[in-house]
User: Fold these one by one.
Assistant:
Number 1:
Amino acid sequence: QVQLVESGGALVQAGGSLRLSCAAAGIAFSIVNMGWYRQAPGKQRELVAVITRGGSTNYADSVKGRFTISRSNAKNTVYLQMNSLKPEDTAPYYCNIGGDYSGSKYYPGDYWGQGTQVTVSS
């Protein structure tokens, strides 16, 4: 069974940084696209960042210039480096694997991490 285990969420002050990690097992990691989503209270799920199997990246406008998605195929892990955090970044963050693009729209895959909570205080 595919399993994604997330870590790295924490309570931080505005302007701080965190790095989220998502370690995968049970899947050919190097050949799938990966993404990070978040869903703040009262908000719909938001795609934060995508890294494709080829290494290209895309970001939500709200995080461009602040967040960086990366992957280590050797470690079967995808990361989200989060800098200059803002209170509006507060949400549980979920990694996802196996998604794909249809045109410019990205559709998530079937596999999700358990979520890791990011809380940014003002």
Note: The radius of gyration is 13 Å.
Number 2:
Amino acid sequence: QVQLVESGGGLVQAGGSTRLSCAASGRTWSMYAMGWFRQAPGKEREFVSAIRWSGDLTYYADSVKGRFTISRDNAKSTVYLEMNSLKPEDTAVYYCAADSSPSSHYSLTRFPREYDFWGQGIQVTVSS
């Protein structure tokens, strides 16, 4: 099993920046692709970004390209999401997720169904 715990976020003004962290545990965690998703009230869970186990391949939703950056530090068992130029529409609960599929060693997916382990979620609120 993989356990994921998000931290960071909170209340941020539009145009500002913040960083989310996802602390992971598990024997094989470092071999899993990791993703960030978000869910706003009344909306479906939405893909934000993903990163390959080695950190050398990333994937972003069009809505966050150029503003968000995903990274990971396997030595620290942590995945990060740097969020810049925040907009009110970025307001959501953000979830960290792990993809244990062998295919994730080579490619990334935006579909929540493909992710096996999830954090509890953390609120990010962007004020106008």
Note: The chain has a mean pLDDT of 95.
Number 3:
Amino acid sequence: QVQLVESGGGLVQAGGSLRLSCAASGHTLSEYGMAWFRQAPGEEREFVAAITQTGGTTYYGGSAQGRFTISRDNVKNTVFLQMNNLIPEDTAVYYCAAAPHRSGSSWFKDYDYWGQGTQVTVSS
């Protein structure tokens, strides 16, 4: 079983950038497809980005395309989400998720392990 801990959230002005990190422990991260989701108050959980086990292929939700970049460092057991040109609509709790032996899914139920989330707030 893998444990996930997100960090890097905070308050930023519109147009700014943040880099989220997801540190894994308890298991080798290289066996997991990884993803980021987000959830705003009163909204459903939304797919942001996913990355395959080796990092060779990435997938993005519509809101993230062109502004966010997902990456991973399997040696450091960490996944990253670089977010640029942030807008107020990006305000949400961002969650890291892991799926054993599966990758690229945008459906949250395909992910077995979740972090506690990190708050991102973008002011206008």
Note: The mean pLDDT is 95.
